[in-house]
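Homework-ish question, so no full write-ups if that breaks the rules, but can someone show me the predicted structure for this set?
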Amino acid sequence: LARAWAETPTKWYPLPIAVGALLLMFMQYRKRLPPREVHVDEEGREVVRLKGPWQVHVLGALPLRNLSRVWGYLNSVELPVWFRPTGLRVYSWIFGCNLDEIEHDLKSYKSLGDFFYRRLKAGARPPADSVLVSPADGTILHFGTIKNRRVEQVKGSTYSLDALLGVETSSSPPSTPVHFPERDMAELNDRHFADINGIEYSVQELLGASTPSSNGSATPARDAPAGIPLKENAVDSPKKHGELVDASVSDEQSTTAEVAARHASVAAEMGVRASAKRRGSGTEVKPGNELFFTVIYLAPGDYHRFHSPTAWVVEKRRHFVGDLFSVSPWMARRLENLFVLNERVALLGRWKYGFFSMVPVGATNVGSIRINFDQDLRTNVGSRRNHPTGTYTEAVYSAASPILDGQPLTKAQEMGGFCLG
Amino acid sequence: STIVLIFEAPQDFQFSITEGQKVQVGQELGDV
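A: Not a homework solution, just the prediction itself:
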């Protein structure tokens, strides 16, 4: 082989002129193609379609949502106690989980899904002293500024901001209000007033009056009128209702005083005078501001709960039912509009600089997204066929705090997570 | 799974991260 490599003479042959001409024509043709092909509907909104190499079309033909549910079921099977330490150590070794920082003994995790949704020891993730911190453990896929309302997925490939977050339409039905649990106001007396930027507010003003519904269920909404292309107004099935309450961190489990203090803290951080009564999670930016984005990928071994990245108020959530493609960097480089095609929960609100949103995007292995303060949210249920790409169900959180007009969250407060299947 | 953050901030907002960097909950992403 060495001799052949060294001694074989190189012979050059002239390419036929026709081949060269064809190559030049092809290159010219590629140059003249428009930079991006956009399909729009009759109202001018972008219609998102599956685009990419043959591999993504093969994956698109698979029943990903059903596979995700089967995966979730398999991972919910209870493991024998004697097997848990060994089995979970093997899983941790394969996916690089740090067992030194988990909250409980390995034997206490009943299933792989239970371990996947593990908690960390208190103080394992002290928040940094900056306005924006990471909401999750993971890898930064991309970040930057948003130009012309398009978010860059990878270099040269973008997706529409409106398609990701949804847009209001004049024909949209009203949003479903989420009711919050009744609180015992008698727990507090007149001393419990919050002084926010020189204005005193009672706890009742901060947290709102008690609602007639104490079980946290959303008001059943009427059917969406026909012909609304982008928005539905349906409420997901209430089954498994109790399972979605996060035991130790949700507002439902905190005392009224703790919740009031948290709300007051967020109000003070945001400047309640300016933010009060200012509704609307529009993405129009104020002069001197810009829209920024960052994408964080959570690998299978990472801690899969997510926390609030800043002090902000969540005004509404939009649940987009979609596909469940893998969101690995490999896929993100190949499948255009990956984050717009996949099932996701867009939480929209505001922080002290204006608009703020956080969008947990599901994947094949983690189709279930939980939001601690939203017991009505059900993800990875129902049929994908009944939910065309771009449609969503919307809920508003204005009942959580009338002054802030939404659900206040402090920096690094746990707000939900991803579950297997 | 993936989390996308989209937010309005003053033009002098600076990210303190790099692409491909591993981050943890609570770690600084950027500041004004």
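Now go work out the reasoning yourself. Hint: Chain B touches chain A at residues 1-11, 13, 15-32 (CB under 8 Å).
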